[in-house]
Design goal:
The structure is a homotrimer. The model of chain A is unreliable at about 185-195 (pLDDT under 50). The first copy, chain A, is mostly helical. The first copy, chain A, has helices at about 1-20, 25-55, 55-80, 85-115, 120-145, 150-180, 185-195, 205-225, 230-235, 240-250, 255-265, 270-295, 310-325, 330-350, and strands spanning about 120, 330. In chain A, about 85% of the residues lie in helices and about 0% in strands. Chain A has one domain: A middle domain of Talin 1. The interface of A and B includes residues 323, 324, 337, 345 and 349 of A.
Chain lengths: ~350, ~350, ~350
């Protein structure tokens, strides 16, 4: 598996560059880009895992989510610059659905095939539940309902205000987790102990270098991938919304997918859940509000107003994830339920 | 009580046949049919209870839900054949509301009058909560929101896709409960032990025969009951929606009502909750999707799209039931809350 | 602090009377009224606390909520008499949001600054969660969705029916709490013991007299405060909805704010939560339905139908509060999350 990924990267990366220079067919390039990203994601997963062993499960999980979302932030800034507001909101929606339902679902399902029950910190699950409800059900629903009678200027003022509050609360959450309430989570200590027995695959320095290079390569390839979407969409009959929400979610979050599932398979559910839910929170409470504020400096500003199908999908995904995860354990059926919800939304976005 | 039921059946059944032959007044037949069904439900309850003692609480509960819903499935197929899509969706909505709020509420209330606190498996409650959210809040809400801009053909494709996923997940839930995670529920073992001390009223063979005959008789009478609805509705000023949602829910689920309340009164809350919630899950994840697929073979196909009042009623009923039941215990006030919610929805459907 | 409040009251009350006689500027009177009410609230808080020590945390909390909401009931009746239905519904919405998010948030936040974790009865939290879902998500959502196609007369019939059910369930909740299930809450007994060690500031008689006088004074000043709203609104550019929901919520609930925060700071979280959530339940299940029934005797009757922004705000506030409080403990971050939700809704109502 690791050797296959290495071969894919060392073939895929040069082909990505050569193909884009010689203008190969978009469908062929699309497949090359996707495979290369998935292979690079394997390296990111292994590097993150090595770092996670050294740094502990929570910091490792946060690291993971950051490196996964850096790619999305970069792509979104380019799209924003080009005025493609609809695609940015769609791809962020896709990231939320992909992280909660697809990454979360695959982690629970794959881990559950190996272990009868897997458990994770109930304190983290409840802490995260409050933030998910806050971000998606308060901060996204309120502007949707309130701005229906507002003009564009007031809609943007409300959006900016809510974006600032989201960022402030996100920073407060980091303060809570790493300063005022550090180490209050019993589960971690137990896990850390068992983890220190393992040896990391790579040393700290080597892991950081590989992580940085692989992330840069993923960003480079992702950007080119995006430019093939219109032709691929026309070829396969996929709408822009479907590409933004489903394809970007799967390929753009491949790094998280890979590492979350590896963690789940190794029974490190705290890390897997941290990747799925932590990444969702980072997108909703940090990446999206940053993009709303950045859009003020571009020609087209982006309000915090989703389409109704996007919003309802996120709201129902949050309610399902909270209901399933707030008992602090998981099994294959819970994973399958999340995956089934993802497929239902996929069908919906395909036909819309 | 048992004697009264026996008398009612042996008078009611012949009168049902005679009355339908000689075309007696619809209102009189309506009363005869209702009383006969309720009396038959008493037999079903006793037969199921006997079987439940022999087979254990979960299989007994499943059995119960199956025999209750077989009646609804048969009635719905006849209605579907006649193209009465609105009445089918209304009566399934009524079954969901009736099972969650009326059966669940009466069980909690009646049981709570006798016992200060009653407890049931918290693992089952949480497992069921995930499925309720999945079925009603994901699988029913998504097509409602997504198909508003779709044409009839695509609406039907989305409905069929979601119906297939619901059935697959329902079968996976049976696999989870009876194969991969059988016997993981502590509560059962404890209950089974205490239950084996009781003697069943009827032997296994006799109970099965009575169950089969009574169910067949309920199906026969129910079908004739339905044909009186238009005249009764006109006589009492009840709309078709109100009859579908309230009257069908009460009479059609009389079997579940009777046995759930008997179980609650005997402090077997695991069985009572299994009937109320398990029956809801069977209707939403099995009966309804089967009907959507079957409707493809009839002249009018039935999409998975409820009216807004129907959908909102089910969503709020699910949220209320989950909030009330996820602590694993019940009391009379929780039962009264569920009943009050049922009355509020009843008032709404009466005037709509 | 106590001396400052005493000075404020003995200067503010005479100035309130003199100013209203000599028709001073509305903006100046607005500031005098606000400060006087906040100072009076300090006395109410101290008197309630003295009584709470004598009578136990639950009765103390109920007492608190009653005295806070008596003011709102009186103001609402005057507004109803003047036909100002929109302002009554807005100010009740504001009370719900203010109690759940502002009082609850400040209690959790201020208490959390002093204590790392604070805990309260998980049984109460879950009992209250069921009632919050019932009142806001069933009893308020159903008429909103169902009455959209009804005429005014039927809308009013549905409203009256639901109002009666709300009052019946509220009385049943009192019966449950104080008669059939009195003293089932473990936490109380523990708390009561530790509380009996404290000496109340004032004796029972003195506390009752101060409570009665201060409440009467708050009612007097509040009524005059309301009459300044139109001029103050015009001066500062505040809409009627914003004044009803935000200003009335802050000043009208100042008494609850003061005592809840004092209780939280003294680590009596059971009382603080009882004030925030108990007061919300009293408004939604008692004050509002009483007003609906009373409105039948006035020229304009008030249906139980909120505007969509009002309803969605309450629904999301309830979901957030339940998610945050159902683990039975709190910290500063949970408080900040509730406050952030309040600010987001405040921004929304300001621009709407």
């Amino acid at each position: 598996m690791n050797k296959l990924f290495m071969i894919l990267v060392f073939i895929g990366l040069p082909l990505s560059i050569i193909g884009s220079i010689f203008h190969w067919s978009a469908v062929i390039m699309f497949i090359i880009y996707c495979l290369t990203i998935i292979a690079l994601a394997g390296f990111i997963g292994r590097a993150t895992e090595s770092l996670a062993i050294v740094l502990g499960p929570r910091v490792g999980g946060l690291l993971n989510a950051t490196f996964g979302n850096a790619v999305e932030l970069i792509i979104s800034i380019f799209a924003l610059k080009a005025g493609l507001i609809g695609i940015v909101l769609a791809s962020l929606t896709g990231s939320v659905l992909g992280n909660l339902l697809l990454v979360g679902g695959l982690s629970f399902f794959v881990g559950g095939l190996k272990y009868k029950w897997q458990s994770f910190s109930i304190y983290d699950a409840r802490h995260n539940a409050g933030m998910l409800i806050f971000a998606v059900i308060v901060a996204f629903v309120i502007p949707e309902v309130f701005t229906q009678t507002l003009n564009d200027r007031n809609t943007m003022i409300v959006s900016v205000g809510i974006a600032v509050i989201l960022i402030v609360l996100y920073l407060a959450a980091l303060l809570f987790k790493f300063v005022t309430h550090r180490g209050v989570y019993q589960t971690d200590n137990v896990q850390n102990e068992s983890k220190h027995e393992e040896d990391p695959e790579w040393g700290k320095g080597k892991a950081i270098i590989i992580l940085a290079l692989a992330t840069a390569a993923v960003a480079y390839v992702s950007e080119h991938l995006v430019s093939t979407f219109d032709i691929v969409g026309a070829t396969f009959g996929w709408s822009e919304l479907f590409i933004g929400i489903i394809i970007v979610a799967i390929v753009g979050n491949a790094a998280e997918h890979a590492s979350a599932i590896i963690m789940a398979y190794k029974n490190k559910m705290d890390v897997a859940v941290e990747i799925a839910v932590g990444s969702t929170l980072q997108i909703t409470m940090f990446v999206l509000p940053i993009l709303v504020l950045l859009s003020l400096f571009f020609s087209t500003s982006m309000p915090l107003v989703f389409t109704w199908p996007e919003l309802i999908s996120m709201v129902t995904a949050v309610l399902l994830m909270i209901t399933i995860s707030n008992d602090g354990d998981s099994n294959w059926f819970e994973g399958l339920t999340l995956l089934a919800a993802y497929v239902i939304m996929g069908i919906g976005f395909y036909f819309i």
